[in-house]
Amino acid sequence: MSYVAVKGGGEAIREAARALEALRAMAGGPSLDPRQIEHQLHFLHGRVMSEGGLADADLVSLAIKQALGDPLEAALYLRAHRSTRPRLAETAPLDTARMRLVRRISAAFKQVPGGQMLGATPDYLHRLFRFELLEEDPTALERILADWLADRPNDLPPPTAPKVLDALRAEGLLPPLQPSSETAFDITREPLGFPVPRSAALAIMARGETGGLLALAYSNMRGYGDIHPTVGELRVGYLPVELPHPVTGEPVEVGEVLLTECEIVAMFAREEEGPPRFTVGYGACFGHNEVKAIAMAVLDRAMSAAAAAGGPKNPSEDPDFVLLHVDGIESHGFCIHYKMPHYVTFQSDMDRLRRARAEAARAEGRAP
User: Tag placement on the chain: N or C end, fewer CB within 10 Å?
Assistant: First the structure.
């Protein structure tokens, strides 16, 4: 495809950037603080963190602020920045059972070991406007937090809980976990080729665009597939991250990341050897993004089932289709590139159309 170099537009581009800054400043008042964005726009923050694939709360807030709230543009800033940073170390596989939980539910069981933890969620609220928020008192947030903390015990240990699906595995209703010797596929350094290992598929979906994943998973749930999942466990919390000590090589905890994890249980399948068992789908991503984790788990199960059955029958079961169409940054970039100059290609299209019209006119015996 040919493009025309943009010349003489430097001043216009600079003015466009100034207009964007002016748009951000039009409301007046103080500039948004990164911590305000992290907490008052909690779910937007989690979505951008997961789609940007970089667990840095301050940089996520900066990206949202700089992008004026456009989640895909903000995620693009994070991806671009991450690509410039050196890789210092790699973690060993992390055990999500050690997650410091802030929310943990199961739709499969009323009571689970460790208990259900609803945490902070809008799931059980009426979707009605709270008009008082339009003119919220500047001290209202301080009062809300003080009131909530007054009811919290100070001596509670960090909440952790065993995995719900471990009980099903112990009963033989799920396949046992098999240790893998496969090296995790690094989608940031290795070119993608099909068929892809499951680690690559999970990595692509982990930073995929929430709406894209949801649309494909929903198509499967609606009938273009056969996955009607039960959420065995959905957990949100802070997962300790360990790195090898530079001297001893022993794992040392260096921090924690906010993570959303989902394990779904789907219809049982009869295996070639052994009794029938339930099947499982898995999803996990940075930040607090429950819809994405559930959709990811559904697609993981759909693609795994299609591979076991000999091939996909629907788009949501086809790794080639799913994995090439859920990266929001790639699709966002391809879509907005149509706004760039295409003068040469369009001029060529017009020339061809004019010639075709002239030839048609001559064939009909009339003047072009």
Answer: N
SS3 241: strand
In whole angstroms, what is the distance from residue 18 CA to residue 268 CA? 58
Q: How far apart are CA 199 and CA 214, in angstroms?
A: 20
Helix (H, G, I), strand (E, B) or coil at 109: coil
Instruction: Return the pLDDT at 7.
Output: 58
Residue 213 host element (H or E): helix 210-222
CB 64 within 8 A of CB 41: yes
Sign of CA dihedral 185, 186, 187, 189: negative
238 has which bridge partners? Answer: 100, 258
Sheet holding 100-105, edge to edge: 100-105, 230-244, 251-269, 277-286
DSSP character at residue 67: T
The answer to which of 9-23, 67-81, 264-278 has the lowest mean pLDDT is 264-278
The answer on pLDDT for 53 being more than 50 is yes
The label of the residue with tokens 């001290």 reads 139
Contact 331, 209 (CB under 8 A): yes
Residue 50: name the closest of 346, 329, 240 by CA. 329
Mean predicted lDDT score pLDDT of the chain: 89
Rounded to 5 degrees, what are φ and ψ at 41? -115, 50
Q: In sequence order, what DSSP letters do the residues of 264-288 get, joined into one string? A: EEEEEE--SSSS-EEEEEEEEEESS
